[in-house]
Automatic annotation (TrEMBL):
SUPFAM superfamilies: L domain-like, P-loop containing nucleoside triphosphate hydrolases. This is Uncharacterized protein. Belongs to the disease resistance NB-LRR family. GO terms for biological process: defense response. Signal peptide: none annotated. Gene3D superfamilies: Helical domain of apoptotic protease-activating factors, P-loop containing nucleotide triphosphate hydrolases, Ribonuclease Inhibitor, Winged helix-like DNA-binding domain superfamily/Winged helix DNA-binding domain. Residues 466-569 form the R13L1/DRL21-like LRR repeat region domain. It comes from Coffea canephora. One of its GO terms (molecular function) is ATP binding. Keywords: ATP-binding, Leucine-rich repeat, Nucleotide-binding, Plant defense, Repeat.
Length: 949
């Protein structure tokens, strides 16, 4: 049955953190349609593994490539929506899969609607088969889903409540049905959804979930949304679609038709249509690390495909094929969209006279045929997934072209590209900077252009000057302007007309690297690049001026400012009114009359919206001072509020910096500022708004002792400060501290002891601490037990590479929430080991060792009852037989156990659920674990993953 949530559940398993960590390779394949040749499935598996298309190899070659990818790796394969019920074919596939040289413990998860598939798999001799049948949802869960998507809130209208039983009967326990009905009712007036329910959904028995999809489709409005919906079915089921690509395709096909006065609004209409399809649940939103994507449920995809094919002419109108030979020559005249893998002959391409969309992809696509110029109706050309490096002159005849997607392999353009006056989007796809690319000549004629990732300034007389940007008032999103050293001054810079581009939210201004250190022309250029007030993010790179312009300081909307390698820039020159946050301060005045006379007070807020400020590679920056109030010789008082909402301040590679202004932000990161005095850093950390502090590679810092109790500080990380000797004296009173990391601070020898005179006494010390890490502190000898007396929230404790640490008498009963304990490469920690492991019911991971070469450690093994991973255990002469009682143990790593010869008894080892065993530098035990001949081999031969050497 479709719509139960099989794919949703499979996705949740596929993305689960434990799954991600347990398997070396994850493979997701949506089979979707019935395939007649098993090599098609293997081809999809290989494509998932390599992240690209596979050319037409024989089955043996494809399987060999899969085997090479999975050799000695444990994989997790998902076959989603399997429709094949041919027993011979399925047996062939899974027998081949079982024959791959992969690690034991690999899994295959299959979702299917067919009972026959389950029957076939259950009989396969090489499959350890487990069946899980999803049940239908209860009525309450269905009702909750329906309400969520209908956006009715907790207060359900009485009329809808009265229909509850009938609506739930229509849902039939299917989450997809509940979601579709909710989406159908969303944003409708009461009269509308009452009509929909009574006349279309609840009027007798009108079929299953397919009927609900049909009703949702029938009520789509305006009418062009239906075309946009059906068009989505030309993609393979489970395809994830990016917003701009989808809207640009709809636009190319003519589905987005504004009135004649609003032609520039086509994209906005597309975004509105997309919102409607999401709202009605006919499209689903997918979010991951790449961004936001859209896809169709398989049942919805099937319906959309039936709509597209309802008119027989549509079957030949939109094609996605892997070979031009598969194109019906009779249909070439009616073809509108063509996705083609591989090259295409010049004469063949010229037959597609009415083509609107052309996408060529694959390693075989090395050049664009000259006949491309004959496709005068072409609106979208995508060659971004090809290896094309040059574009033919005939491309310049595509006067209707709106969208061009190319890769960074295309290093230049034909001379007459300016003729493409319908261009709206120029996309450079894939990674790379594109700094060597020469822009299209005369791009200023593209007055409808909205998307332009970067603009590399070149010679003005060749049509590559900055003035080409002036007429592009519709540019939106992000734009990088490079080679600004070629701009002659303010007047030339103003020709870019950035102040008339309200849809740009991010700008990057980049000068090329030059030998001279200072260039006053840079200041004039930056002054002339004043953007529209809507700008929220600005990056300035390699600027050689020493002053910033008034428009930057006056910005009331800028949220992020990044200054990189602006080595001559002064942040504090009051006499020239050029410092960040101080410039141009006399704007409003008010009289303050007192007994001693009168004075004028001017108040000004600088960067009122700025939340993120980054200073990087400012080699000559020496001072950056506070500025809140200044009195002039005439008795005028200037009151200034600088960065009032700043949240994050990053300072990196500013070796001469000695002062930083008082922070109002919540996050402070300092990296490579060797001249910053210790006292300055200590004072910075006192301010009540500060929640996160990172100090990295500041060799001048010797002590943080003066850092008093920071009431709101949640995270303190100190890394690579090799001369740091002392941590804050009141560290134990940081009541909000959740994360504490001290890394690579070679001279720290102690964490000190809590001050008994403070008002908190011994109660509540570090009560919020969740994660504590100390690594690479070679002179640290001991950690005070008082430090952990009240750490009831501690979940993760990591000590590593502290070679002088000899004492850690921690009673772990004081840390009942501990989940992970790591004690790694602290070779002298013998005398006093932590105790109380037996009380830790939440402990999941233990990493411990190696220690001294001379004695074995005493360890409370009973505390590992709930642990799933025991790693790096060393200096054991024997493993206890009751190790078999550790029911949750899945991973055991033995390292450097020179005296260990035997594992626990066979019976005890069989009780374990070990999936991974690693034995390293345990010579005596390794010899006894020799395959077939070793005395301990029978105890471990069934463990899925073994690494013994």
């Amino acid at each position: 049955m479709g719509g139960l949530g099989k794919t949703t559940l499979a996705k949740a398993v596929y993305k689960n953190e434990q799954i991600v960590g347990h398997f070396d390779k994850k493979i997701w394949v949506c089979v979707a349609e019935k395939v007649d040749r098993i090599e098609e499935v293997f081809k999809m598996i290989l494509e998932s593994l390599i992240g690209g298309k596979v050319e037409g190899d024989r089955r043996e070659v494809i399987v060999q490539k899969i085997q090479d990818e999975l050799k000695e790796k444990r994989y997790f394969l998902v076959l989603d929506d399997l429709w094949n019920d041919q027993e011979v074919l399925l047996n062939d596939f899974f027998s081949t899969l079982a024959g791959l040289n992969a690690k034991k413990g690999s899994w295959c998860l299959v979702t299917t609607r067919l009972q026959e598939v389950e029957t076939i798999l259950s009989r396969h001799p090489q499959i350890n088969f487990t069946r899980h049948e999803l049940g239908k949802l209860c009525n309450d869960d269905c009702w909750s889903i329906m309400k969520k998507w209908a956006t009715v809130g907790e207060e359900v209208p009485k009329e809808l409540e009265d229909m509850r039983k009938r609506v739930l009967r229509r849902c039939d326990g299917l989450p997809l049905a509940a979601k579709l009905i909710g989406g159908l009712l969303s944003k409708k007036r009461k009269e509308e959804w009452l009509s929909i329910l009574e006349e279309s959904l609840l009027n007798g028995d009108q079929g299953g979930i397919e009927q609900i999809v049909k009703v949702s489709f029938d009520h789509l409005s305006p009418a062009p949304v239906k075309k946009c919906f059906a068009y989505c079915s030309i993609f393979h089921q489970d395809t994830e679609l990016e917003q701009d690509r989808l809207v640009e395709l709809w636009m190319a096909e003519g589905f987005l038709q504004p009135d004649s006065q609003n032609e520039r609004m086509m994209e906005k209409i597309g975004y509105e249509y997309l919102r409607i399809l999401l709202q009605t649940s006919l499209l689903e939103e997918v979010r991951d690390w790449r961004g936001t994507w859209y896809k169709m449920h398989d049942l919805v995809h099937d319906f959309a495909k039936s709509i597209l094919n309802r008119n027989s002419s549509n079957q030949d109108r939109y094609l996605a094929v892997y070979s031009p030979e598969r194109i019906n020559e009779k249909a070439s005249a009616s073809l509108r969209t063509l996705f083609l893998e591989g090259g295409i002959a010049d004469d063949m391409l010229s037959k597609f006279k009415y083509l609107h969309v052309l996408k060529l992809f694959g390693a075989d696509v090395k050049e664009l045929p000259i006949s491309i110029g004959k496709l005068i109706h072409l609106h979208l050309l995508d060659i971004s997934d090809s290896i094309i490096t040059t574009l033919p002159e005939s491309l310049c005849k595509l006067y209707s072209l709106q969208t061009l997607r190319i890769s960074l392999l295309v290093y230049g353009f034909p001379k007459e590209m300016s003729n493409l006056i319908s261009m709206r989007h120029l996309h450079y796809d894939h990674a790379g900077t594109g700094r060597e690319i020469q822009m299209p000549s005369g791009i200023g004629r593209w007055t409808c252009l909205q998307t332009l990732k970067f603009f590399n300034i070149g010679r003005q007389d060749e049509g590559h000057g900055i003035q080409e940007l002036g007429t592009l008032e519709d540019l939106k999103g992000s734009l990088e302007i490079r080679n600004l050293e070629l701009v002659n001054g303010k007047d030339d810079a103003e020709l870019a007309n950035l102040s008339k581009k309200p849809n740009l939210y991010r700008l990057v201004f980049e000068w090329g690297n030059r030998d001279r250190e200072s260039d006053k022309c840079d200041e004039d250029v930056l002054e002339g690049l004043q953007p529209h007030p809507n700008l929220t993010e600005l990056h300035i790179r390699n600027f050689r001026g020493d002053q910033i312009p008034q428009w930057l300081v006056n910005s009331s909307t800028l949220v992020e400012l990044h200054l990189v390698n602006c080595r001559e820039l002064y942040l504090n020159r009051l006499e020239n009114t050029t410092c960040i946050g101080l410039s141009f301060y006399s704007t409003s005045a008010e009289e303050d009359g007192g007994s001693g006379g009168s004075s004028t007070i001017s108040r000004r807020t600088f960067f009122p919206a700025l939340k993120i400020l980054s200073l990087k590679s400012m080699k000559n920056l020496e001072e950056w001072k506070d500025a809140h109030e200044m009195m002039s010789t005439a008795g005028e008082v200037h009151v200034m509020d600088v960065f009032p909402v700043l949240e994050k301040l990053y300072i990196s590679d500013c070796p001469k910096l000695t002062t930083i202004p008082t922070p109002s932000q919540s996050s402070l990161s300092i990296d490579g500022c060797d001249s910053l005095p210790t006292g300055m850093i200590e004072r910075l950390c006192l301010f009540p708004t500060l929640q996160r502090v990172e100090l990295e590679y500041a060799d001048n810092i010797t002590t943080l002792r003066g850092m008093s109790c920071a009431a709101c500080l949640k995270s303190l990380a100190v890394d690579g400060c090799e001369n740091l000797r002392e941590l804050p004296e009141d560290l134990y009173q940081f009541q909000a501290l959740e994360h504490l990391e001290i890394l690579g601070c070679l001279r720290i020898d102690s964490f000190g002891h809590p001050n008994p005179k403070n008002s908190f006494g011994q109660k509540g010390l570090l009560k919020s601490l969740e994660q504590f890490t100390v690594s690479g502190c070679h002179e640290l000898t001991r950690l005070p037990v008082e430090m952990f007396e009240s750490c009831t929230s501690l979940r993760e404790l990591n000590l590593s590479d502290c070679r002088s640490l000899v004492s850690f008498p921690l009673d772990l009963r004081r840390t009942p929430s501990l989940e992970s304990f790591s004690l790694l490469r602290c070779p002298n920690l013998i005398a006093e080991m932590p105790s109380g492991f037996g009380s830790l019911t939440s402990l999941r991971k233990v990493v411990i060792g190696p220690f001294s070469d001379y004695s074995a450690i005493e360890f409370d093994w009973a505390g590992l009852a709930s642990s799933s991973s025991l790693q790096h255990v060393s200096l054991l002469e024997a493993l206890p037989d009751w190790l078999g009682n550790l029911a949750s143990l899945e991973e055991l790593i033995l390292f450097g156990c020179k005296k260990l010869e035997y594992l626990p008894s066979t019976a005890d080892m069989e009780r374990l659920k070990l999936r991974r065993l690693k034995i390293r530098f345990c010579r005596l035990l390794t010899e006894r674990c020799t395959p077939q001949s070793g005395s301990e081999w029978p105890k471990i031969s069934n463990i899925q993953e073994r690494d013994i050497r």
